[in-house]
Amino acid sequence: MTSDNIDMTLASNELVFLNFYAEWCRFSNILAPIFAEAADKIKEEFPEAGKVVLGKVDCDKETAIASRFHINKYPTLKIVRNGQLSKREYRGQRSAEAFLEFVKKQLEDPIQEFKSLKDLENLDSKKRLILGYFDRRDQPEYDIFRKVATNLKEDCQFHVGFGDAAQAMHPPGTPIIVFRPDVALSHENDETYTGSLQNFDELKIWVQEKCVPLVREITFENAEELTEEGLPFLILFHHPTDHNSIKDYKSIIERQLLDEKQNVNFLTADGKRFAHPLHHLGKSEDDLPLIAIDSFKHMYLFPHFSDMYSPGKLKQFLQDLYSGKLHREFHYGPDPSNDIEPDPHTGKGTSPPESKFKELGPSKHRYTLLEKDEL
C-alpha cells in the first residue's frame, strides 16, 4: 500500500486488513511470510471483488500513512470496515489460520434477528444492546443500521425485528432504534434514537456514545489495548457476583467525574481474576470491593470503599494523584492537614507498590516499540 492507492482501496472494499511494518524489525520479518500465506487463503475463501483485501504498509517509506494511522510499534495490524477505521487493532495469534478465522468473523452479519418481542426477554442483561424495529429488510434505513452495526459490533449486541415481529413497537413506515443498557450492571434506562435514520455518521455517533461506556471492564483480553491508551486507571475490584458495587460505582463516576474522562480510564475488574494486583496492594478476595489507581508507575489504594459514596472523595483521590500527594504521602505519611486515616498497608518510608497493569501492555517480545517511555 502507498499514498497513491490506499484511499481507493479503503473506499472500495468492505474489509481491509492492514499490516504496518518496518524492514528492520525482526517481528515484522517473522510475520511477512505468514501474512502473505493468509492473503492467499483469504482470497481463496472470499474471491469476490470488493469483499476483503489484505494490505501492507512499509512505514519507513510511507511515513505519511504511518503518521495518519498513529503507528507506534511494529508490526501493527489494523482493520478498516466500510472505509471506517476500527479503533481496535488485531492483537491475536499470528498465524495464517488465525488470520483467516478472524476475517471470517469480521465478515459475519453482526445483527441477530428476533421473530417475536418475547425473544427480547431472553437477551443478556449484562450486555449493552441496540434494538432495531423495521417493516422490511430492503428499507434504506436498515442498510444504514447494518453498516453502523458492522463498525461497532465489538461494542454492542445488535438485534432487529421485521414486520409482524416489530409492528407493536413502531408506527408503520417509521423504523425505530432503541438502546437498552446493561441493566444488571448499571442504573441506566432505555433510550430511543431521535436523529435521522438516513444519516450514517449521525447514527454511528449516537450508537458509539451509548455502546462505549464511560466505565469499562478490564479483562486479560483487552488489557493490552486499554494500557496502550496511556491514561492512568481508576479501578473498582469487585467480587464476580457483586453487581451492586458496579452499578453504584458507574453511577457515581457518571455524576461526579465526567469531566475527568480525558485524563483517566474508569474501569471495573473481577477481583478473582485479577488477584495478583490485589495481592500487590496487600489485599485479598476477602477485602472486596475496593478501589485503586494504577498510574503505570505505582498503584495507590483508595483508603475506604465506603468513602466512594461521599460526594467529592473520589474526585479528591484523583486530584491527589495529579498533584503528587499520593506519592508523597506514601513516602512520608499523611500531610499535616490530612484527616484521612493512614492505611495500615502503606507504611512510612516505603515506596508505593509498582504498577501491575503496565506489565499487560504491548510486549517487547512481540513488538518493536517505537516510544518505550510512552507507557
TrEMBL record:
<dbReference type="Pfam" id="PF00085">
    <property type="entry name" value="Thioredoxin"/>
</dbReference>
<dbReference type="Pfam" id="PF13848">
    <property type="entry name" value="Thioredoxin_6"/>
</dbReference>
<dbReference type="GO" id="GO:0012505">
    <property type="term" value="C:endomembrane system"/>
</dbReference>
<dbReference type="InterPro" id="IPR036249">
    <property type="entry name" value="Thioredoxin-like_sf"/>
</dbReference>
<dbReference type="InterPro" id="IPR041862">
    <property type="entry name" value="ERp44_PDI_b_2"/>
</dbReference>
<dbReference type="InterPro" id="IPR052643">
    <property type="entry name" value="ERP44"/>
</dbReference>
<dbReference type="InterPro" id="IPR013766">
    <property type="entry name" value="Thioredoxin_domain"/>
</dbReference>
<feature type="domain" description="Thioredoxin">
    <location>
        <begin position="1"/>
        <end position="108"/>
    </location>
</feature>
<keyword id="KW-0413">Isomerase</keyword>
<dbReference type="GO" id="GO:0003756">
    <property type="term" value="F:protein disulfide isomerase activity"/>
</dbReference>
<feature type="region of interest" description="Disordered">
    <location>
        <begin position="332"/>
        <end position="375"/>
    </location>
</feature>
<dbReference type="InterPro" id="IPR041870">
    <property type="entry name" value="ERp44_PDI_b_1"/>
</dbReference>
<feature type="compositionally biased region" description="Basic and acidic residues">
    <location>
        <begin position="355"/>
        <end position="375"/>
    </location>
</feature>
<protein>
    <submittedName>
        <fullName>Endoplasmic reticulum protein 44, isoform C</fullName>
        <ecNumber>5.3.4.1</ecNumber>
    </submittedName>
</protein>
